[in-house]
Specification:
Elements lengths: L1 H24 L3 E6 L2 E6 L7 E13 L14 E8 L11 E5 L2 E8 L22 E6 L5 E13 L3 H4 L9 E7 L4 E8 L11 E3 L2 E7 L3 E5 L14 E11 L4 E6 L12 E4 L6 E3 L1 E3 L17 E4 L4 E10 L10 E2 L4 E4 L1
Parallel strand pairs: 2-12
Antiparallel strand pairs: 1-3, 3-8, 4-7, 4-10, 5-6, 6-8, 9-12, 10-11, 13-14, 14-20, 15-19, 15-22, 16-17, 16-21, 18-20
Length: 342
């Protein structure tokens, strides 16, 4: 009778153990995805770091245990670890690199917007730098799904590599790095109590791409051209100034000058007396001493052309006031606009 009583007491416990095992077999699981990280548009002559963001999304599902809904959650806690390696075109994580042809750009991905070295998203060694992204979720009560997102912060470094970055010649160039199987991964573990460390549980790939679209870009600035004072224009009067232009490496450009604010005619520019609008002085601009008029290509005028190299290039503007008579004294002025096309 005692043996029979013992067996009757064990039977419910064995049934519970079988139920627990069956519940674990229901395979609570997690999935993860990562958006591409895109730096665009990027100017090689911008002179500042370029930042962007991407988003990782983690979805974990608890199937629960039992034979009649709602199913109860057996392992309510889950730790999800997102690991990141070097990516293609990178020899290390400090820095990671994007590549276009033979050229590379330096960048990195971070877990917050401080862009500090300890916050680089990295490898599966929790105590080291860079570190993985670690998420925790707890699902109490019955079966269901929880979704959590995390922002990833990208920064492209404004260094010599970016300043020398070439475009496709007539437009933009895409610098890339891929994170596929073995380079980006998710690992997760469900537990009954507490939260497990990384490096436990199933592993799956987390593929995405990092891209930087480097564009043709130019900036231009011009200094004032001041002719010397004179009482009579009995001889030609000359002066020089300069235009500073900076364009992306490999970018062809041309600089045009308009006809000014007085006549608007490139072949007939005039300065106007500030005290008497009816008094004007003719003058010419060229890119060589007493050369062909520098204009917009109309009326036989020329434009200055060049190819950018990422640095600031200086172009000399030669001004000429030809001999002319009956010019009343006063201060004369005109405003000419320089335009760079690329």
């Amino acid at each position: 009778m005692r043996a029979g009583l013992t067996m009757r007491r064990l039977a419910p416990l064995l049934g519970l153990a079988a139920m627990l095992a069956a519940g674990h077999a229901r395979a609570d699981s997690c999935t993860a995805s990562m958006t591409d990280v895109l730096f665009t548009p990027v100017s090689p002559i911008g002179g500042a770091n370029v930042t962007t963001t991407g988003t990782a999304t983690v979805s974990c599902t608890w199937t629960g245990i039992g034979v009649i809904a709602p199913f109860l959650v057996l392992f309510p806690n889950v730790t999800v670890c997102l690991f990141l390696g070097n990516g293609t075109n990178s020899a290390s994580t400090t820095p990671r690199q994007l590549k276009y042809g033979t050229q590379t750009l330096n960048y990195n991905l971070y877990t917050d917007a401080s862009y500090a070295a300890p916050k680089i998203w990295g490898a599966p060694v929790v105590a080291a730098t860079p570190t993985p992204i670690i998420l925790t979720m707890t699902k109490g009560g019955t079966a269901g799904t929880l979704v959590q997102t995390v922002t990833v912060y990208g920064q492209l470094t404004a260094d010599a590599a970016l300043s020398a970055a070439k475009t496709a010649g007539t437009g933009s160039a895409m610098y890339t790095s891929d994170f596929g199987a073995g380079s980006a991964a998710m690992q997760y573990s469900f537990v009954l109590g507490g939260l497990p460390a990384c490096l436990a549980g199933p592993v799956s790939a987390l593929p995405f791409q990092v891209r930087a679209e480097v564009i043709n870009d130019c900036t231009i600035s011009a200094g004032a051209l001041a002719f010397p004072n004179g009482s009579l224009i009995s001889n030609p009067v000359r002066a020089t100034s300069s235009i500073a232009v900076a364009c992306s490496p490999n970018a062809a450009y041309q600089i045009s000058l308009n006809g000014g604010s007085v006549t608007g005619v490139v072949t007939g520019r005039k300065m106007q007396n500030l005290a008497s609008a009816s008094n004007k002085v003719s003058y010419q601009l060229s890119n060589t001493l007493d050369g062909t008029i520098w204009g917009d290509g109309s009326g036989g005028t020329v434009m200055v052309t060049g190819t950018g190299d990422g640095s600031t290039q200086s172009v000399t503007v030669y001004g000429l006031v030809p001999l002319q008579s009956a010019v009343p004294p006063g201060a004369y002025k005109d405003t000419v606009t320089a335009v760079v096309a690329f």
